[in-house]
Every structure is written in structure tokens, then in C-alpha cells.
């Protein structure tokens, strides 16, 4: 890439490619989507024509395009490792849509390929680049809460969102609530409290594909003695939840919309009847735009990043352990 331009090729033509890459790239002057690939080249051409993308074809055509600096892998998690490693071997940097891969073994293969090829691989935990998330982590680490006594995360998608035919209900494609939203919770908790182990896990399974969890409750234990209860679910009420609640010896924190801060995220810290912090996410700030701006900076200067594939391996290993503790096999 040049100092001023990151040229992106996309694997996949689903809605996430549009929302997470094509649309935000129009708001970042230094990022340009120049190629798209699909198993069906005609589908890639239709996508390219719709968004004014120059080149379209199969995945190989994107990897061999000499003008592509980074490949965005917007495919089901079960094929992330195959195509991310291929792109890295072809000399491209890679951004994988979350989760990084189907399991810890595949995640490590991506990280190893990045290291071997001296290229960068990233996972698309875009929310980590939003100023709200950075402020949330700052408050948690500040000591204002005192000793942490209880942590609870509820990431429950409204029950009507994930219905029959949705890829999140397909075990062959890496479906399941922990894969879809539980990975966010694990990533956020690791950022706040460090490394963890799974204490317990229980899952409600999808009748049509019992490999897939519709709803999983699990408990993580961290090195400093903190435990966190997590709910990852496709069976939420009509409003759903994306909340984090922390009780400390000095104060209590409650945050909403923590994995999509641009949807009106709020942060409130109270001590008894006293309100210590009452903040909202900045209007109009997009975590997807922030992610692209961040990638340009990291690839241009070597700046530190919370999106490194090497760091995301531990998140996927915990996802595996959550499934094992619930009596399921990793993806």
C-alpha cells in the first residue's frame, strides 16, 4: 500500500460486505474497494456494478490482483482459515469478519500464516475502535468501581431476527449464538480483565440443527479472581440486549449497546444515589469507519492494534471451551 491509500479486495457479496466495508470506505478518503470475489463470478460482477467496484471475479482473481493491499474475508467462519491463509500466502494483508475463524485451531493457522508471510491479519471487532468503547474500558480500568464484585453481560438478539434459513442457524457454516455474539462478550471481557477460563456453560439447541446453540449462558473466571456471567442468545425479547453491568465495592457501572456503540450506547456509573458518570456515544460516529481509519494507520506506521489475529486466537479458544463445557463440539 502507499502512504495515502489502502486498496481493498473483498471475498463475499453478503450484506456484511456492504455494511462493514463498502459503505464505510466511501467515508474514508484513504480507503478504496477495488475488487470483489465470489464463488459465483456473476454474483461478484453484479455486486461490483451495484457499487462501482472496478474488478470482479472469483477469489483467486482478487488474491492475484497486484493492486489489492488487503483482503476483507466476509465469508462464513468455517471457511475463514482456508481463504485467509491463501490470501496471506499471496502476499496480502487480511481482515476477517468476526469471529476470526471457526475455532481456535483455525484461528491459530491464520495467525501463523500472517507471521510466516510477514503480513498483518486482523479480526473485525470494529466496536473496539469506537471512542465509546475506549472510554468504557478506561472507566473499568480506572479504579472508580473499587474491587469488582460481579460482572454480567447480556447480548440477546431479538427473537424475530434470526429465523429459519439464516446462516447463523447453520452448523456447517459455523452458526450459533456464542459464535455470533458471545465472541464479542469474550473479546470485551478479555480487554477489560485479561485472560480467562470457562467455569460452566449451558446451551439451548436449535431443533433443526442440534449443533447450533440458540441460547447459551456461561461463566468465565479471570486470573485476578473476577468472574463474569455471560448470556449469548438469539431468543431475546422484542428489544434485545447489548448490556454490560458491573458491581464494584465503590460504584456500579451499567452500559448499553456496547457492541454497536453507534446505536445510542450509554454509560452510567453510580455510587448509591450519586451519579458519577452519565455519558452517551458521540452522535454520528461509526465503528466501521473508525476500523478502516485504524487499519490505514496500523499498516502505514506499525501502530499497536487490538484487532491482531495473534491476540484473537485466545478468544476463539475460549469459544471452543464454552461449547465443550455445554456438551457441544467446537465448530
UniProtKB/TrEMBL annotation:
Gene3D superfamilies: Dihydrodipicolinate Reductase, domain 2, NAD(P)-binding Rossmann-like Domain
Domain GFO/IDH/MocA-like oxidoreductase intervals: 134-253
Ranges for domain Gfo/Idh/MocA-like oxidoreductase N-terminal: 6-125
Enzyme class: oxidoreductase
Superkingdom classification of source: Bacteria
Entry's Gene Ontology molecular function annotations: glucose-fructose oxidoreductase activity; nucleotide binding
KW Electron transport (keyword) present: no
InterPro entries noted in UniProt: Gfo/Idh/MocA-like_OxRdtase_N, Gfo/Idh/MocA_domain, GFO_IDH_MocA-like_dom, NAD(P)-bd_dom_sf
Pfam families (UniProt xref): GFO_IDH_MocA, GFO_IDH_MocA_C3
Entry's family note: Belongs to the Gfo/Idh/MocA family.
PANTHER family reported in the protein's UniProt record: OXIDOREDUCTASES, TRANS-1,2-DIHYDROBENZENE-1,2-DIOL DEHYDROGENASE
Name of the featured protein: Glucose--fructose oxidoreductase
Natural source organism: Microbacterium trichothecenolyticum (Aureobacterium trichothecenolyticum)
